[in-house]
Amino acid sequence: MIEYLTQNFNFITYGFEIIALIIGALHFRKYKNSTTKYFVYFLLYIVFVELVGACFFYTDTFFVINFLRSLGINSTVWYNVFWMIGSVLFIIYYFYSLISLTLFKVFTKITALIFLVAMIVHVYIHPNLFLTSHPSFYQLSGALATFISIALYFIQLLNSDAIIDMFRTFGFYASIGLFVWWLIITPVLFFDIYNSTSDWDYANLKRLIFLFANIFMYTCFSIGLFISKPELKND
C-alpha cells in the first residue's frame, strides 16, 4: 500500500485537485456573486499549472512544452514559481477580500507587498536558483505570509457574529485546509537535504507527508464548496 502511494503520489494529488475543481464548477452558480468564485478560479489555475508541469515531465508532445523547451527551459522546477509565488499572492488576496476591518486590511496589504518584494529580490540575486532547485526560502516565506493572512481572518471571525455560522462559510474551510497544509509541510523543509536517491526512506516519507497533507487540504476545499452558504457573511 505504501509503495503504491509513493509511486502514484502525483496522480493521486491530481485526482483530488480535479475533484475539488469539479465540485467548485458544479456549485459555481451559487458562488457567482461571492468572493468564493475567485477561489474556484484559483482551483482552475492550480489544475492548469499542474497539467503543464505533468506534461513537461511525462511528455514532450504538448505544444506549450515544446515552446518552453525551445526557450531553454528543461526543468520541471520552474513552474513552482507559479505555485509558490502566484498561489500565495492569491491566498493573501482572498483573505484580504474576506477581511472587513480597515487595520487588518492594511496589515494584509503590507504582508503581500513584503512577500512580493522578497520574492523579486531573491530571484534577482539568485536568477537561476528557481530553475535548478526547490528553494526553501520561497516556501518558508509563503508559509509566513499565509499564516499572517489566516490569523487576521480568524481574529476578525472570532470577534464577529459570523462565528455562529462559520461551519457554513467557505472561508472557514479554506483557512483550515491551508493552515494545516502549511503547518505540516513547513517542518519537512528543514530536512530537505536528505531528499535524494541516497536516502529513499526519507524521500518516500516526504512523499507520504505531502500526499496526506494534499488530500486533507483539497478535501477541506471540496467539503466547503459543497456545503457552504454564500449568502452568509465572510463568504
N- and C-termini, Cα separation: 39 Å
Instruction: Name the helicity range.
Output: over 70%
By CATH, the architecture is named Up-down Bundle
* Fraction of residues in β-strands: under 5%
User: In total, how many domains does the architecture comprise?
Assistant: 1
CATH top level? Mainly Alpha
Query: Which stretches are poorly predicted, pLDDT < 50 over at least 5 residues?
Result: none
How large, in whole angstroms, is the Cα Rg?
Answer: 18 Å
Large-scale geometry: globular
Q: Return the string of H and E elements.
A: HHHHHHHHHHH
DSSP strand count:
0
> In terms of structural class, how would the helical and strand content be classed?
mainly alpha
Defining key terms:
mainly alpha; Rhopdopsin 7-helix transmembrane proteins; globular
Describe the structure in brief.
With 235 residues, the chain is mainly α.
What does it look like?
With 235 residues, the protein is mainly α. It has one domain (2-227): Rhopdopsin 7-helix transmembrane proteins, CATH 1.20.1070. It has 11 helices and no strands. Helix 2 packs parallel to helix 11, helix 6 (80-98) runs antiparallel to helix 7 and helix 6 (80-98) packs parallel to helix 9. The protein is globular. The mean pLDDT is 83.
